[in-house]
Write a structure and sequence with these properties.
This protein is mainly α and 373 residues long. The chain is built from 11 helices and 2 strands. The longest helix has 39 residues. The two termini are 50 Å apart.
């Protein structure tokens, strides 16, 4: 009887004593921005590349406008054929037309700074961005294709072939990715550049683009839409491979486990662009001559059609015979002065955009994961 009474009291005590409530599960996962789950999506890469292209065009176009205006003071543009316009991202062939064109407006300049001041004062500051619209029409799709292709290919090759111990990517991964990306971008944009050049020769608007394509196909066939592509690839493809190898090496050496800062990517992009520009300058000189020769055929179809097309090797032999090795490095200083800041602005803006979207993807994952608990 007594044992039964004790058991009953114990059960009553258990029922009266409050039991501890289990604490809710706390999410303690440590997240890293470099986690593959937070990688930048293709659409986000396009947005970052597009921002970089616009920024580079806005900053570099005035410098090239000044360079062309300084050249126009001399007799170089009096042939009424064409000249090369480049904002650091792309080359554009423009016709030397008569009349009050932006590159012919009279103003004696003594130098770059003097030209910037006089153009801004006499013609308005917007004149420093002459030719920006056609530049953006081609630069934005080209840059989007280029950087998106590079980043997508590099990350996939790196996931498959990186060293499992050191977690480093092989040196050939950025090289192959850069070569493929530049080949893809140049091939896609080459018909657009040729169409734009033809439109300039006839002073047509972008609404008449179908008439231009129809005329070019009738005159040259579909292969004619890629005239001059070989010369462009011979310069831009090696440049891209060398550039990305140098940049990724500097990036992995100084920031092996972290995301690069804006200013590091700016300086590394400038240094890599300088090295690549120096090595590929001979191809740039030959490409410029060949591009102008091809454009002359477009601007003067009736006069130039019967003349045979000069190959890249012809221009190499001609330039070397006339001026030796020095002739193949003509314009090295202005080329580096243009490419180094353009590469720095483009890659630092792109890296900043990538970093922004990686943080955005990580925070979005956090909010979604915490909502489950």
């Amino acid at each position: 009887m007594r044992q039964t009474s004790i058991n009953s009291q114990y059960k009553l005590y258990e029922m009266a004593t409050p039991k501890p409530v289990p604490s809710p599960q706390v999410h303690t996962e440590v997240l890293s921005q470099s986690d593959p789950r937070f990688r930048v999506k293709p659409f986000q890469q396009m947005a970052a590349a597009c921002t970089g292209a616009v920024m580079t065009s806005l900053i570099m176009t005035p410098l090239d406008v000044v360079k062309i205006r300084l050249q126009a003071q001399q007799m170089a543009l009096l042939s009424k054929q064409c000249f090369i316009f480049c904002n650091g991202l792309m080359d554009h062939v423009c016709p030397c037309l008569g009349g009050d064109q932006w590159y012919r407006r009279p103003s004696p300049f003594t130098g770059t700074l003097d030209a910037i001041i006089k153009i801004s004062r006499n013609e308005g500051i917007t004149s420093l961005w002459s030719g920006l619209s056609p530049t953006l029409v081609l630069a934005i799709p080209s840059t989007v294709v280029y950087f998106t292709t590079y980043e997508q290919l590099r990350t996939r090759l790196n996931d498959r072939y990186k060293d499992p111990v050191t977690n480093k990517q092989p040196i050939w991964v950025p090289m192959l990715s850069g070569l493929t990306a530049r080949f893809s971008a140049a091939t896609c944009v080459s018909p657009m550049e040729l169409v734009r050049t033809k439109m300039q020769s006839q002073r047509l608007s972008y609404l008449d683009v179908h008439y231009v394509i129809k005329g070019l196909v009738k005159l040259h066939g579909y292969k004619g839409l890629w005239k001059g592509l070989t010369a462009t690839l011979c310069r831009d493809v090696p440049f891209s491979g060398i550039y990305w190898v140098c940049y990724e090496y500097l990036k992995s050496y100084f920031y092996p486990e972290e995301n690069v800062t804006f200013w590091f990517s700016f300086l590394a992009g400038s240094a890599s662009g300088t090295i690549a520009a120096f090595i590929t300058t001979p191809f740039d000189v030959v490409k410029t001559h060949q591009q102008i020769d091809i454009a002359a055929q477009i601007y003067k179809d009736e006069e130039m059609q019967k003349k045979p097309k000069k190959s890249m090797f012809y221009w190499f032999r001609r330039m070397y015979a006339e001026n030796g090795v020095r002739g193949l490095y003509t314009g090295l200083t202005p080329r580096v002065a243009k490419i180094a800041p353009a590469c720095a602005i483009m890659v630092s803006t792109f890296e900043y955009g990538k970093n922004f979207f990686e943080v955005y993807n990580m925070n979005r994952y956090k909010r979604q994961h915490e909502a489950e608990f």
